[in-house]
Design a protein that fits this description.
heterotrimer; A alpha+beta; B mainly alpha; C mainly alpha; B: mainly alpha; Four Helix Bundle (Hemerythrin (Met), subunit A); elongated; disordered N terminus; C: mainly alpha; Cytochrome C Oxidase, Chain A; two-stranded antiparallel ribbon
């Protein structure tokens, strides 16, 4: 085009009329056939890949199956074969196929871990499947990729790819909680602050959040608020928006609406409560102790 | 260029690049879009067929004999429409008025049947928001009913106008175009009747 | 805007019950006008206004995104901003701009004196203008819709979205759809029935062909949208279950219906742009459009195929590999006729005498930008790639390249091309080159980086993003680009005012054009042409000026003109009468929209009654207008 623009520009004073060519059938045929060939070259591997990546997977014993339910504005993850219910973060083993069966409890969402796989939409009354194999251990960010109103931008998450051993350890911690039907800090000593935090949790939080795995009546289909079992193992808070540490957790508890405007968690500590900061600190200590062997150093950073 | 109106107007001889009168072409285009309207509504009905979570279901409420009668009435009205247009084209104004009234009358009878059917269904528990059948059925047949109502209005308007202003065979374009619309509405009903009623009992 | 002298012989005819207005000047003449040229100008001005509101919305969004984790606007307001930006740009700005240019120039280019149904044309405009006002007013009446411009169910259900915003969206688009539909049918009848003698189908300018195809697309694509909007309104107002998951409804049905409309919609937007390019490039290369017949046929092919690709917007919704593969194939195939057009435009340049007017510069920028957008489109046609890019900024970049870089640049080109014809003044070319540089340069600065940040994982429709992901630089560049574009747009608007003040007089044919609009004055008189144009070839005006260059048969042309004069000469021309009723009917619909939104059924019924009365009055008010004889009255 640039060549044509330079060569055929009108020189000053040149008013002669150029030859009024109307067309050239040979040229037309040529530049129809070549694009067709290009399109075919693109389409063949494309269609092959479609079938390879989107055919519904038949689960094998090696696969890890996770049922995903999208909510406004968090993810519910259930490992049906392993008996694990968690939220917003999943641990998966490397080099094994992960099969996600996904639906939504309310509006459309879309699950996307850009560094590992393409996305798939979560649609109410419909089951969509996404499968992938992660090859490199690490912590990967995920996020919702379909407008779900409100704080859609803050519906993120983490996918943590573990080695086989780490994954087994993680699974054990959950299964232990499930077996005892009680939260656990897995044998570490608890402080009085943590005990007080447990009490407060029971008063203020337990109505919506479970920390004891699948509890009675809290099946996947009926879970409305994020399950917090083994919360101390989480790398982030609020569906992937804050690093999980003391300061951030206190920030969240103080005013969830300020961190994630429009989300469903109300402010539970009014400004007029004189013990506000102490209570929050206690609940923070308690939550961070869940799942951790060393509750006093519950600091995990996300990559 | 010249607006075509229902009344006669001596237009200067103007070149036209198509022999088809403007109003007629316009009505054909409108019917094409209306095809898409009804196609979408019928498509929605078909997508949701059999997916109602609770009753009443189609076999519980649909009454083939009665609806056959109303369909026949509508079909006959289309025949009368042909007679009306022929009468006007031949300049037989009294006949044209009779048949035009007949079409509107039969259309009104059809609407009467629809009202009866709707109220019966409601009594039997099928409402707009009862289930998917209710939603899709009432919206589809209701939209059709509105189309019939508009057609009846158009016919009555022509009829009344024929008493106010003298009409000759040259004024047949508007009636012809109304006839096209009416026949279309009739054909849509044949499709609806088949898809909703007959298929359920096949 | 003044007209030529009115014939002293004319008398406003009213053979009906009501007297039709007959103002020449002033605001009442604009409210009752049925003149396609005035309505075309109204469309262009109104769409420019909505362009500005949508640009402001985008500007604020980009300010918010310039830095990570900002909160200049809340997530809620941000959702409203991008929703209204999309709705305004698609339905109120760019599509009506194409319709406005079509309204003004299609009749002129086929040698007609107005549209087939002038009052309906006016009605179509007023309905559009009022629907835009209704939509925009949602900001002050409780909040604009916040569901994205494609409003996926079940975001739009009453339980998920109890406010009125969604109702404004549904009602506003329903109303504007009515206007669009009737105007499309009007233009089709015009192009079929009112072409000049001798203007066979393949002697019709490419722009008019593109308009014809576009109008057919509108006729077939808008009804599914209308029904879908209506179904959501029924869900929200009467509790039907069309998109209610709890009742068994399937939200994905909305996606299907919307995109069955939505994909043809983007062709509705781009085909008029293709038409503009097909006029501008030949004019400023001083050569005919290369492969005219192929351009026309590929346009028709695109029109048909445009209905077969809609699910490529839904590749990630779990349709399954067979369906996805089918739509991949149709989508890549539609790239072929589009590419062929680009080759033909390039071939038009080849061997020509290229003049780098502002209009031509925009057309050339279109070629580059649109092609880039087309390439990213082919990439997106493949689900494995789309699985990453869908709902990310990569897609945002793609559609802005084809819609913005495509349609918008083409319409800039069209405005610079046709402004002299519409106003009689030339836009300043030196200033125009600045506008070009700023708008095009700014455009690329805004949208090119977005490809990359999308591939880095930035989703669309997010009010903010985390720091430390490496997205900052791209967002900053993008926001900086909006400043550049804004300056360009401002200079453009100023240059329009300047042209009216003291622009150079354009004369009939400043560009040595090829088509019939250049054969009459600038601006054209209200009756368009002194003599009925008679046509014996493609590019008939060029053939008249330079018959040897195209081997035109001058004698044959003279004979055709004489024959036409013999048969139709002296009959005079009927100028359509003005009318109040299109305006009144549109007002009734406008207020009816509000009545429906606020569930005020008595008011709605009353307004329906007013609408019915105005329709009857419209039908019965008689022919009006006047009869003139342009030749014998010596009007220039």
């Amino acid at each position: 085009m640039i060549y044509a623009l330079v060569r055929f520009r009108r020189r000053r004073g040149d008013d002669a009329i150029p030859t009024q060519t109307h067309g050239n059938p040979v040229l037309e045929i040529t530049w129809t056939i070549i694009p067709i060939i290009l399109v075919v070259l693109v389409a063949i591997p494309g269609v092959r890949t479609i079938f390879r990546t989107e055919t519904i997977a038949k689960p094998t014993p090696d696969d890890v199956i996770i049922n995903v339910i999208g909510h406004q504005w968090w993810w519910s993850f259930e490992y049906p074969e392993l008996g694990i219910l968690t939220a917003n973060e999943i641990h998966i083993p490397e080099d094994r196929r992960i099969i996600l069966n996904m639906t939504s409890a309310d509006v459309l969402h879309s699950f996307w871990v850009p560094q590992i796989a393409g996305k798939r939409d979560l649609i109410p009354n419909q089951n969509n499947q996404l499968w992938f194999i992660a090859e490199e251990p690490g912590i990967y960010r995920s996020q919702c990729a379909e407008l779900c109103l409100g704080p859609h931008a803050y519906m993120r998450g983490r996918v943590i790819v573990d080695t086989e051993d780490d994954f087994a350890a993680w699974v054990n911690k959950f299964q232990a909680v499930q077996k005892n039907n009680a939260p656990s800090n897995h044998g570490a000593a608890t402080t009085s602050e943590i005990q007080w935090g447990q009490q407060l949790f029971g008063q203020k939080c337990a109505a919506c959040h479970s920390v004891a795995g699948f509890t009675e009546g809290t099946t996947v289909g009926e879970a409305i608020y994020p399950n917090l079992t083994n919360f101390g193992l989480r790398t982030t808070i609020g569906a992937g928006i804050l690093e999980n540490n003391e300061d951030n957790l206190a920030l969240w508890l103080r005013d969830p609406q300020a961190v994630k405007p429009g989300n469903r968690m109300p402010n539970l500590w009014s400004m007029s409560n004189p013990n506000r900061e102490k209570e929050i600190a206690a609940v923070v200590a308690y939550l961070l102790s869940l799942g951790n062997e060393d509750p006093l150093s519950a600091h995990v950073s996300a990559r | 260029m010249s607006d075509t109106s229902a009344t006669s107007h001596v237009a200067p001889k103007t070149y036209r690049s198509s022999p088809l009168p403007d109003l007629k072409l316009f009505m054909w285009l409108f019917l094409a879009s209306d095809c898409m309207f009804f196609g979408t509504l019928i498509g929605t009905y078909l997508v949701y067929r059999g997916r109602s979570l609770e009753g009443p279901f189609p076999i519980d409420v649909l009454d083939i004999p009665i609806t056959t009668v109303s369909s026949f009435v509508l079909l006959m009205s289309s025949f009368l429409m042909v007679l009306a247009l022929h009468a006007l084209r031949s300049g037989n104004i009294p006949r044209f008025r009779l048949w035009t009234f007949g079409v509107a009358f039969f259309g009104a009878i059809f609407l009467g049947f629809q009202v009866f059917e709707f109220s019966t269904f409601v009594q039997e528990g099928l409402t707009l928001n009862q289930n998917l059948f209710g939603s899709t059925f009432f919206v589809l047949t209701g939209t059709h009913g509105i189309h019939v109502t508009i057609g009846v209005l158009m016919l009555l308007s022509i009829l009344i106008l024929s008493y106010v202003k003298p009409m000759t065979s040259k004024d047949s374009l508007f009636l012809e175009v109304t006839g096209l619309y009416w026949h279309f509405v009739d054909i849509v009903w044949i499709v609806i009747f088949t898809v909703i009623y007959l298929v359920e009992f096949a | 805007m003044t007209y030529g002298k009115q014939s002293t012989r004319s008398v406003s005819e009213s053979t009906g019950l009501l007297i039709r207005p007959n103002w020449d000047r002033g605001i009442l003449s604009w409210l009752t006008t049925v003149d396609h040229k005035r309505l075309g100008i109204l469309y262009i001005l109104t769409s420019t206004f909505f362009f500005l509101t949508a640009s402001v919305e985008a500007f604020v969004m980009r300010l918010q995104l310039a830095r990570p984790e900002q909160s200049l606007v809340s997530p809620d307001l941000y959702n409203q901003l991008f929703t209204m930006h999309g709705v305004t740009m698609v339905f109120l700005a760019i599509m009506p701009l194409g319709i406005g240019l079509a309204n003004y120039f299609a009749p002129l280019m086929i040698g007609a004196r107005d549209l087939a149904f002038p009052r309906l044309n006016a009605f179509g405009y007023w309905v559009y203008a009022f629907s835009g006002i209704l939509l925009l007013s949602s900001f002050i009446f409780g909040g604009a819709p916040d569901v994205g411009w494609f409003a996926y169910a079940p975001l739009t259900s009453l339980s998920n979205n109890p406010g009125n915003g969604v109702d404004y969206f549904m009602v506003g688009l329903l109303i504007s759809g009515v206007g669009t539909l009737v105007t499309a049918m009007n233009l089709i009848v015009t192009i079929v029935s009112m072409r000049a003698p001798g203007m066979t189908w393949f002697r019709m300018p490419a722009f008019v062909w593109m308009i014809l195809i576009t109008m057919f697309l509108i006729v077939f694509a808008f009804p599914p949208l209308t029904i879908a909007l209506f179904q959501i309104l029924m869900d929200r107002t009467f509790g039907t279950l069309f998109y209610d998951p709890a009742g068994g409804g399937m939200p994905i049905l909305w996606q299907h219906l919307f995109w069955i409309f939505g994909h043809p919609e983007v062709y509705i937007i781009i085909l008029p742009a293709f038409g503009v390019i097909s006029e501008v490039i030949p004019t400023f290369s001083r050569k005919p459009l290369f492969g005219y017949a192929v351009i026309v046929l590929s346009g028709i092919f695109i029109g048909f195929l445009g209905f077969a690709v809609w699910s490529h917007h839904m590749f990630t919704t779990g349709l399954g590999p067979v369906v996805n593969a089918a739509f991949t194939l149709t989508t890549v195939v539609i790239g072929i006729p589009t590419g062929i057009k680009v080759f033909n435009w390039l071939a038009t340049l080849w061997g020509g005498k290229i003049q780098f007017t502002t209009s031509m510069l925009f057309a050339l920028a279109f070629l580059v930008t649109f092609t880039l957008g087309g390439i990213t489109g082919i990439m997106l046609a493949l689900p494995p790639f789309d699985a990453q890019a869908q709902d990310s900024y990569f897609v945002v970049a793609h559609f802005h390249y084809v819609m913005g870089g495509g349609a918008l640049l083409a319409f800039f080109s069209g405005v610079y091309y046709w402004f002299p014809k519409m106003t009689g003044r030339l836009l300043n070319e030196r200033v125009g080159k600045w506008v070009f540089a700023l708008v095009v340069g700014g455009f690329h600065l805004v949208f090119f980086p977005q490809h990359f940040v999308g591939l880095l994982g930035m989703p669309r429709r997010v009010q903010s993003y985390e720091a430390g992901l490496g997205w900052e630089i791209y967002n900053q560049l993008s926001t900086a680009g909006t400043w550049v574009m804004s300056v360009g747009a401002l200079i453009f608007l100023i240059s329009i005012f300047q042209a009216f003040r003291n622009g150079k007089v354009a004369g009939n044919d400043p560009w040595d054009g090829r088509t019939l609009e250049w054969s009459t004055t600038s601006p054209p008189p209200y009756y368009n042409f002194v003599k009925d144009p008679v046509v014996t070839s493609l590019d008939s005006w060029w053939a008249k000026k330079y018959p040897e260059s195209v081997h035109a048969d001058v004698d044959h042309q003279a004979e055709a003109e004489a024959n036409h004069q013999a048969e139709y000469g002296g009959a005079g021309v009927h100028i359509p009468g003005q009318s109040w009723f299109p305006f009144i009917a549109a007002i009734a619909i406008f207020f009816g929209g509000y009545a429906f939104i606020y569930d005020n059924w008595w008011l709605a019924l009353l307004l329906l009654g007013i609408l019915l009365v105005s329709c009857y009055a419209w039908a019965l008010e008689g022919v009006g207008g006047k009869h003139i004889n342009p030749e014998s009255e010596g009007i220039a």
